[in-house]
Specification:
Helix content: 25-40%
Largest sheet: 6 strands, mixed
CATH architecture of one domain: 3-Layer(aba) Sandwich
Low-confidence stretches: none
CATH superfamily of one domain: P-loop containing nucleotide triphosphate hydrolases
Mean pLDDT: 92
Radius of gyration: 20 Å
Length: about 300
Amino acid sequence: LEVRYKHLPTIQDVMNDTLSLDIETDDERRERHKALYSHSPLLEVINLKKTYFSSTGLFGKKIGFKAVDDVSFKLYEGETLGLVGESGCGKSTLGNAITLLDKPTAGSILYRGKDITMLSKKEERIMRKEIQIIFQDPYSSLNPRLTVGQAIMEPMKVYNMYGSNSGRKTKVLEILNKVGLDETAFERYPHEFSGGQRQRIGIARTIALNPKLIICDESVSALDISVQAQVLNLLNELKESFDFSYIFISHDLAVVKYMSDQLIVMNQGKIEEIGNADAIYKHPQKTYTKKLIDAIPKGL
């Protein structure tokens, strides 16, 4: 964690004798950030709140639970913004609110300067193509009756992309190659793949719509360490190739710190700490952040 490798070492690298230990220097990181933050933000979240209500007692009095409580931040084009905290801190709820899968109770979400919480149904449908999400369990988001090729082509059809099924198939084969799967995956079913391969399929389905912003919600949490490294490398490679911006959500601070430019630490629905990922890791200001850092296994 003291250095940031440009490419995380994997078992495959060792076996293929392709191990590279190039690091991003502090100067390189500063210059990259200088370019990143010289433009207007791609996304701006302002005083966002999400409250869930439940009825309780004899008279059904409504009790509110603030899952996201007055959260504000900015995300810039080409940036990876890390979102970390313990289970139940509100980070996934925040991600779902940004995609409008679970609309906020109050506050604004400006995407390219436009408040997406105020969109019409038609405008919202168009916006969803731009903001996509990769879930922790890709298997649950894939229809087991559809082949991988059909599953990836499905959202393309919804948006009438690439003109025809033939054009869509060509694009899907290209995307499968990009995520490290061969052409035979097109005709196979999700249950035939390992966890890491399924996550690659989930990523392929997400990038098929050419989004600008991708929310990675615990996208590597269910994978073992060696497969995690492969998927994290893939996400960074795709970011470079397609100019994606990421919101990277995880309870694992070591993973988030590696991936992120800026870092948000959440606790009980609120932002506990926000700033440069390296600065927060080296000099945490809040006790809660220090506890998260202390919980990281030594040697990482």
